[in-house]
Design goal:
The complex is a heterotrimer of chains A (about 425), B (about 280) and C (about 325). With about 425 residues, chain A is mainly α. In chain A, helix 3 packs across helix 5 and helix 14 crosses helix 16. Chain B has one domain: Rossmann fold, CATH 3.40.50. Chain B contains eleven helices and ten strands. In chain B, strands 6-7-8-3-9-10 form a six-stranded mixed sheet, sandwiched between helices. Chain B has a four-stranded antiparallel sheet with strand order 2-1-4-5. In chain B, helix 4 crosses helix 5, helix 5 crosses helix 7 and helix 7 packs parallel to helix 8. Chain B is globular, with a radius of gyration of 18 Å. With about 325 residues, chain C is an all-alpha fold. Chain C has a single domain, classed as MetI-like (MetI-like fold). Helices cover about 75% and strands about 0% of the residues of chain C. A two-stranded antiparallel sheet of chain C has the order 1-2. The chains are: A mainly alpha (about 425), B alpha/beta (about 280), C mainly alpha (about 325). Chains in contact: A-B, A-C, B-C. At the A-C interface, helix 1, helix 11, helix 12, helix 13 and helix 14 of A face helix 1, helix 3, helix 4, helix 5 and helix 8 of C. The complex binds adenosine-5'-triphosphate and magnesium ion (MG). The site of adenosine-5'-triphosphate (ATP) has 12 residues of chain B, from strand 2 and helix 2.
Chain lengths: ~425, ~280, ~325
């Protein structure tokens, strides 16, 4: 509808007020697009800022020190003394008491253990305990150093006085670091410990190993119970249940259960599993069962939808051959519905993986250093670890928290990806 | 293969070589070996009365065609014979249907055993989404008809051969049954049905989803199958009924209007409604 | 008829089939057992709570302060258990969340259902769903770390007095979380409006936006309203966002810049400390849980009833 020199009675200009109507037309369209963009923009902002903040958690700062033979002789196998001597000797001007304390503060909480491992001979350097030989070693740095190195404060300190306010390191310490960095004695390699270590009060040592194990135990238990019970319940409701009041009540009940706040399931777990049955507090056993109860309605609903999508002709074919109802259902209908059921269950598991509130109710908030070795052990879970670390006043834990969120999101992406692939692969084939 | 559960061994009815069908008249039909007798069969779905007091005998080793306008209850009657109607909660059946003299709605009857003796082929081919082999082998497996893998192989081969499908699929028995053409799928369903050696095969418009060539093949097959099986077929095609069946029953609004020798029904229908339907004025 | 063994009779008993059937029924009944378990445990502990604290004080009290003694003569640690400020805080935060999510959700749905090309719809819709898939603990962390300081800085620079964990911070993040819920139900409701109705309006010369505003949205309104109720139920029951980003002190206020606390926050606070299980404080958590369940259930039943009725209307 372009404007032509001759005014057609069908052109837009022929009708008064139409321009205004068209303007509002495009306004409306833009409002809709704007709403979506705002939502997605927020999502991008959230993910980007977590990524930016948490990326560093996967790397840790290490400083190389030369360990001399004399220092080893003096230490007589004591890593604590050896570490201090080394720091004192390697850093220039660490002679006063105050300066020495600043030097010691550069080493991370686990540096001493690293050294001790070598002194005990568990980690080979070529030197034997009896006959000390000089060697050099990358020792982990303290969380303050880690922060300063990762945010590039070390080199900025001369020029940008403002930045010094961001770190608790002193000028002396920053000078040492600047020197070390220019000598190539500082590196930030991948921090495997972040994924394997248990929780710790020291940020350098704290890792997600325990939380990942805990989540794994919890989810496996949750999956086994809710999938089995959910599929069986769905099979009953879809294939066998008579159409009566009881069945109708069951359906209403399941739909409502699906929207009960998750924290209520936590209260249920606390009252029944912990207080009534006396199951072990904070354990993945109880966590898994609570999450299973929570996911059960989701699994039932998804499984029913999946069963409904199997055409009745398949059932009729089997029954007409003299198969019993049970045979028809378990030989033909359930196998065909299984991918759909599994997809629903995986999506339910993904939700359960991110769930925190019910776990808080059953005591899965305690500080637990050792990764659980059975479902009865006290355990943390990934989202609970996020919650615990986010509460920590230490700045280093902010990075850890974001890092833990990234791991959590990675697992969620994997699970959703698996569900999508499963759905694609088994799209209707009859 | 000898069927250990063959109904004939228990049958109180006289068995033997059936006589050549003689034209016209209910009295001659009685002289046939009767496999199924329906007496005063009424069916209702809730308030809807789908069948009203049907009396019909079905002769052994013959093809009986059920014809009639849509909704007249042909499928309903067919599904009474193997009690597939049991699956519909609202469906109420009264009257008596006897298979070789045994009331199939009797209290001690097991529907699974009944269906093992009365097979069914559906309007739309409905192979299981499994391999061709597994489709045919399913029935023998659940009924434990084969003692060994070799026996099962033999049953599958024999059934596929009888269904006239073996030559087309013998190299790809492990392909999905659903990957076959529509006509092949329907023959696979027939092979699946005869793999358990039923006495009766019910077919509900088995060709309505097929093209003329596939239809011709199935019709040929039906002609061969009647040597061994008693066949009841529902069809909407007059020509098909005339071509394949020995006897025809005409249903109208839930009532059995006329039945008899196919030739007679098509040449000299006794009832005005039958004539109207056959000449294309109803339906 | 001859007396013969009926060959149609059952050849062998099938005990395992009966066992499987029993198992199936048992599994279906498990769903009921969960409900019974929830209601029983909440009720049982709540009754014990109400034997210590009168129900009237709980339902109508305007002070929530479980740590302090309620009256001078009272022994032990029993405090004031008035639920009103908690409910007020819960509804304030939920209201903020809904006022953000409702327009964004509805406009998103309108765009997705009426404007977006099928291809972009296929990308945008699942992308929007991601918002619902992000764990709430992540939202909570983000609200506490980024949004709350942001709101406080902006508010302070504008001369407002903003609490560090304002209701606005928790509410707005919660709003983002429930956008997909509202948009997908609205999308369904809009798509359920019959094509003939749209064509009638277009045929009268109305523009698309006029059709949407005057025909489609009014027709879809009940469905959308039901969706909002369901979203409200989600918001009321949400825990982690408020635990991490809302306050702990029970202020009775409607000012979104102040800190308020919610029912779920208090449940967590009461139960995560080291408590004697029988103390009034832990029992109070169950009374709060019962209240929460009742409120969300009403919203849910009402919401899904409206959604279902609206769906049927056009079927
Ligand atoms: N499952 C059912 N529930 C209720 N009514 C049914 C059901 N199946 C069939 N009917 C009704 O029973 C009557 C007979 O149906 P039937 O399927 O036997 O007809 P038909 O002769 O096979 O028709 P067509 O030639 O179209 O297949 C019809 O009025 C039909 O509406
Ligand atoms: Mg029919």
């Amino acid at each position: 509808m372009t404007n032509t020199p001759i005014r057609s009675p069908l052109s837009a200009s022929a009708v008064a007020g139409l321009k205004k109507r068209y303007r509002s037309e495009s306004l409306y369209r833009r409002l809709g697009l704007g709403a979506i963009c705002a939502s997605l923009g927020f999502l991008a902002f959230l993910l980007a800022s977590i990524l930016q903040q948490g990326g560093g958690a996967f790397f840790k700062t290490e400083i190389r020190f030369d360990i001399t033979a004399e220092a080893q002789m003096d230490a007589e196998g004591d890593a604590f003394i050896l570490l201090r001597t080394t720091l004192r000797n390697s850093l220039q001007g660490a002679n006063t008491r105050a300066a020495r304390r600043q030097a010691y503060a550069l080493a991370g909480a686990d540096a001493e253990e690293q050294l001790q491992a070598i002194l005990n001979g568990t980690q080979s350097t070529g030197a034997t305990p009896g006959d000390p030989m000089p060697f050099s070693i990358w020792l982990s740095a303290s969380d303050e150093v880690d922060f300063a190195v990762k945010s590039g404060l070390v080199n900025l300190m001369e020029t940008d006085a403002q930045n010094i306010g961001q770190t608790r390191l002193t000028t002396t310490q920053l000078n040492w670091l600047a020197k070390l960095e220019s000598d190539g004695e500082i590196r930030t390699p991948f921090n495997l410990g972040f994924l394997t270590n248990g929780d710790s009060r020291d940020a350098e040592r704290a890792g997600l190993g325990g939380a990942i194990m805990g989540s794994l135990f919890t989810l496996m238990l949750c999956f086994v119970t809710s999938f089995f019970v959910g599929v069986m319940a769905a099979v009953y409701l879809e294939e066998f249940a008579p159409k009566n009041l009881f069945t109708a009540f069951l359906e209403v009940n399941i739909n409502n259960l699906a929207s009960v706040p998750s924290i209520i399931f936590g209260l249920l777990g606390l009252a029944i599993f912990l207080n009534m049955f006396g199951m072990p507090r904070s354990s993945s056993l109880v966590g898994g069962m609570v999450l299973a109860l929570m996911t059960l309605p989701t699994v039932i609903i998804a499984s029913r939808v999946s069963l409904q999508s199997v055409p009745p002709s398949i059932r009729e074919a089997a029954l007409a051959l003299g198969a019993t109802r049970i045979q028809a259902v378990f030989h033909h209908v359930v196998p065909l519905a299984l991918p759909g059921m599994l997809t629903g269950a995986i999506l339910g598991m993904a939700r359960a993986l991110g769930e925190t509130a019910p776990l808080l109710m059953i005591g899965m908030v305690a500080f637990i250093a050792d990764p659980p070795s059975s479902v009865l052990d006290p355990a943390a879970a990934l989202p609970v670890q996020v919650f615990l670390w986010s509460d920590s006043p230490e700045r280093a834990f902010a990075e850890k928290t974001s890092g833990a969120i990234l791991v959590l999101i990675l697992f969620l992406i994997l699970m959703n990806g698996a569900a999508i692939m499963l759905r694609k692969k088994f799209e209707k084939k009859w | 293969m000898v069927n250990p559960m063959n109904l004939q061994s228990h049958s109180p009815m006289p068995t033997g070589i059936t006589g050549f069908p003689i034209a016209a008249g209910a009295s001659t039909e009685v002289a046939q070996n009767i496999r199924i007798t329906a007496k005063d069969v009424s069916v209702s779905y809730g308030d809807l009365r789908a069948l009203k007091s049907i009396d019909l005998d079905i002769a052994e080793n013959r093809v009986t065609a059920l014809i009639g306008p849509s909704g007249c209850g042909k499928s309903t009657f067919l599904r009474c014979i193997n009690r597939m109607n049991d699956l519909i909660p609202s469906c109420q059946v009264s009257g008596e249907i006897k298979l070789s003299g045994h009331d199939i709605y009797g209290p001690e009857v097991d529907v699974e055993v009944l269906r093992r003796h009365v097979g069914m082929v559906f309007q739309k081919p409905n192979p299981f989404p499994k391999t061709i082999y597994d489709n045919v082998a399913y029935g023998p497996r659940i009924h434990g008809l084969a003692g060994s893998k070799g026996e099962l192989d033999a049953i599958v081969e024999k059934s596929l051969k009888r269904a006239g499908l073996f030559d087309e699929v013998k190299d790809r028995l492990d392909r999905l049954g659903t990957s076959l053409s529509g006509g092949q799928q329907q023959r696979l369903c027939i092979a699946r049905a005869i793999a358990i050696e039923p006495e009766v095969i019910l077919m509900d418009e088995p060709c309505s989803a097929l093209d003329p060539i596939a239809t011709a093949k199935i019709e040929e097959l039906i002609d061969e199958l009647k040597q061994r099986y008693t066949i009841v077929i529902v069809t909407h095609s007059m020509q098909q009924a005339a071509r394949v069946s020995d006897y025809t029953a005409y249903f109208h609004l839930g009532e059995l209007v006329e039945r008899g020798d196919t030739n007679r029904i098509f040449t000299s229908p006794q009832h005005a409604k039958t004539e109207a339907y056959i000449s294309g004025r109803i339906g | 008829m001859l007396k013969t063994v009926n060959p149609l009779a059952r050849h062998k008993a099938r005990p395992q089939e009966q066992a499987i059937r029993t198992l199936l029924v048992a599994c279906a009944a498990a769903a009921i057992l969960v409900t019974v378990g929830i209601i029983a445990s909440l009720l049982f502990e709540s009754i014990r709570f109400f034997s210590e604290v009168p129900m009237g004080d709980f339902l109508f009290g305007t002070t929530w302060s479980p740590q302090t003694a309620m009256r001078e003569d009272q022994v032990g640690s029993t405090g004031a258990f008035g639920i009103i400020p908690l409910l007020a805080g819960t509804f304030l935060i939920s209201f903020i969340a809904l006022s953000i999510a409702t327009p964004l959700g509805i406009y998103s749905a309108v765009y997705l259902a009426e404007y977006a090309a099928p291809k972009s719809r296929a990308i945008l819709k699942p992308s929007l769903e991601i918002l619902a898939g992000i764990p709430t603990v992540v939202y909570g962390f983000f609200a506490a770390l980024v949004i709350a300081p942001l709101i406080r800085d902006v508010g302070t620079s504008l001369g407002f007095d903003v609490a560090s964990s304002s209701a606005l911070a928790a509410g707005s993040i919660m709003g983002v979380m429930i956008i997909p819920l509202i948009s997908s139900i609205s999308d369904d409701a809009i798509s359920a409006v019959p094509q003939s109705l749209k064509e009638a309006s277009i045929g009268l010369g109305a523009t698309k936006s006029e059709t949407i505003r005057q025909v489609i949205l009014p027709a879809a309104l009940p469905g959308i309203a039901g969706g909002i109720l369901l979203a409200a139920s989600r918001a009321i029951g949400e825990t982690m966002i408020v635990v991490m980003a809302a306050g702990l002190a029970a202020n009775l206020t409607v000012n979104p810049l102040e800190a308020v606390t919610t029912v779920t926050v208090q449940i967590v606070m009461l139960l995560t400390g080291d408590q004697e299980f029988d103390s009034a404080k832990t029992l109070a958590a169950f009374a709060l849980g019962l209240t929460l369940l009742a409120i969300t259930l009403v919203f849910n039943i009402f919401g899904s009833w409206i959604v279902a009725r609206n769906r049927e209307a056009y079927d």
